[in-house]
């Protein structure tokens, strides 16, 4: 339908934190009435699925939802009523039950005046024996960096059944900060950093206007979980690197605001932990690794600052704080639930145990020559960081303390649980902006593989080491990390997997550019794991 601007809302925008609206086009759309942001679906099960839309009326509005097995809605198979309320930023979510398993459905919402939303397509999860299931994996979509061509490419495919988004769906930074020079035509709101509930809602609203993201949501159900940028960079249970209590208030208030806005705007349940059963083929586990029970990240720089003998300080750090058993990403309760559920899945005869979580799990140490890989004349801060990373690597330490590498005891517990349960583990990850294919081991034995996805738009190593050929950096990384089967440090895109009873074939898809709106020239690199082998096939 054509959106009609409510000028009263525009005049009242300041009351709701919208006074900073800066771009005329986006301001007009964000203050529109009616169905403003398309449709979305998620949380699929064998007989149900969660459906989402947003409708701005004069107050609370009761919408009717229709579900059919054809786009013409010849026969309505289910649906119900749901209220779009200003209390939830006019977002409406409805779980439709009584559906048939393993089936594609079409759905739409209808307003009291008869206007209709866009038509969405979704599907329920299959039961019994399943011969094939397609999954796409996404993370790290920073809108001002460029076009969401990865979303556009996936949205057009006919071999996908489910989208998995493992976080950094949007970014919290103020406009003009990461990136310093935003791409023209990729505006976001508000211009300030997101701190309040109104800020987070508005940032989500501006992202959800992107046509490729809307198409992805319209065409497939999504399983999603936040990472750090949906709240603040490098967040953990009790704080974040990008949060200053003296300027931005209590972390608990900001965290709660970010969680509320995310759950309003995304087709997700309110559960931190969930699992999804794909017949006898696979169980997908979706834990929360960021805000529920994560210990604060360690800081190698702080450990060596002011120390005369850097290597001695690094050894003390390695053998002490880094290996501390109490450090965790998920918290004890989630850990125990995940281990129990993985064991039940494997014991019940499910072929694959798929862990969809946020950060890279494989061990990644920097090559010893990392500082020499960068030519002179670069950023002095980057050079200093590279020197510290090189020293840490020499001491046997990884370079990213925000990933599972910063929580080795917790990783060992998880991999031991997978090994003890005889799982065929496939880990899905994001966060790092680069592509990694890791063989995961415990006590020297293979446990599973990891498809760590590159970003939709956020820059990777090519941003910080522009003088280093990506192929050279990749070879050096593989030489330093025996478990690293695949790496790409310079391109954007997404991962897709075709899961069968005998194998999982995963492909890293690389879009040609994010500077133009195109998917022409997209290329792919593949790795497969055969059932029972628990490592990538050579």
From TrEMBL:
Region (Disordered) location: 231-250
InterPro entries in alphabetical order: Metallo-depent_PP-like, PhoD-like_MPP, PhoD-like_sf, PhoD_N, Phospholipid_Metab_Enz
Entry-linked Gene3D superfamilies: PhoD-like phosphatase (3.60.21.70), Purple acid phosphatase-like, N-terminal (2.60.40.380)
One of the Pfam families matching this protein, by short name: PhoD_N
Domain Phospholipase D N-terminal: 37-124
Domain (PhoD-like phosphatase metallophosphatase) ranges: 136-508
Official protein name in the record: Alkaline phosphatase
Organism whose genome encodes this protein: Novosphingobium guangzhouense
């Amino acid at each position: 339908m054509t959106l009609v601007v409510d000028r009263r809302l525009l005049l009242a925008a300041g009351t709701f934190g919208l006074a900073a609206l800066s771009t005329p086009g986006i301001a007009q759309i964000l203050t529109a009435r009616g169905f403003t942001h398309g449709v979305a679906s998620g949380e699929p099960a064998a007989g149900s699925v969660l459906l989402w839309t947003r409708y701005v009326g004069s107050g609370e509005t009761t919408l009717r939802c229709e579900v059919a097995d054809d786009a013409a809605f010849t026969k309505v198979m289910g649906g119900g009523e749901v209220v779009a309320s200003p209390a939830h930023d006019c977002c409406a979510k409805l779980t439709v039950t009584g559906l048939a398993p393993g089936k594609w459905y079409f759905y739409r919402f209808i307003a009291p005046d008869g206007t209709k939303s866009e038509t969405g397509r979704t599907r329920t999860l299959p039961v019994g024996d399943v011969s094939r299931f397609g999954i796409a994996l996404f993370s790290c979509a920073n809108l001002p960096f460029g076009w969401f061509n990865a979303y556009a490419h996936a949205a057009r495919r006919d071999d996908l059944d489910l989208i998995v988004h493992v976080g950094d769906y949007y970014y919290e930074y103020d406009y003009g900060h990461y990136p310093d020079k935003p791409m023209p035509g990729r505006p976001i709101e508000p211009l300030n950093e997101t701190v309040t509930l109104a800020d987070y809602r508005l940032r989500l609203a501006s992202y959800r206007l992107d046509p490729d993201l809307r198409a992805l949501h319209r065409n497939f159900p999504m399983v999603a979980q936040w990472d750090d940028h949906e709240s603040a960079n490098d967040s953990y249970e009790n704080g974040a690197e990008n949060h200053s209590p003296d300027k931005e208030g209590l972390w608990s208030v900001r965290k709660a605001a970010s969680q509320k806005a995310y759950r309003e705007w995304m087709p997700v349940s309110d559960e931190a932990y969930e699992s999804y059963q794909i017949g006898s083929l696979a169980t997908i586990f979706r834990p929360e690794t960021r805000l529920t029970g994560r210990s604060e990240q360690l800081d190698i720089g702080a450990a060596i600052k002011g120390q005369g003998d850097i290597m001695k300080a690094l050894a003390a750090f390695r053998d002490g704080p880094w290996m501390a058993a109490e450090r965790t990403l998920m918290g004890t309760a989630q850990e125990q639930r995940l281990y129990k559920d993985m064991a039940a899945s494997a014991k019940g005869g499910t072929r694959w145990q798929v862990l969809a979580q946020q950060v890279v799990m494989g061990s990644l140490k920097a090559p010893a020559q990392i500082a020499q890989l960068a030519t002179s004349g670069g950023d002095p801060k980057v050079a200093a960081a590279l020197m510290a990373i090189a020293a840490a690597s020499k001491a046997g330490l990884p370079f990213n303390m925000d990933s599972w590498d910063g929580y080795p005891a917790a990783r060992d517990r998880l991999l031991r649980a997978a090994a003890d349960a005889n799982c065929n583990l496939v880990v899905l990850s994001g966060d790092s902006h680069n592509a990694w294919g890791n063989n995961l081991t415990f006590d020297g034995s293979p446990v599973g593989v990891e498809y760590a996805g590159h970003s939709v738009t956020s820059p990777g190593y090519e941003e910080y080491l522009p003088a280093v050929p990506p192929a050279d950096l990749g070879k050096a990384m593989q030489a330093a990390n025996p478990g690293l089967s695949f790496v790409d440090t310079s391109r954007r895109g997404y991962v897709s997997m075709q899961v069968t009873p005998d194998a999982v074939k995963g492909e890293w898809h690389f879009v040609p550019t994010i500077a133009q709106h195109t998917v022409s020239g997209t290329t792919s690199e593949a790795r497969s794991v055969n059932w029972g082998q628990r490592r990538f096939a050579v």
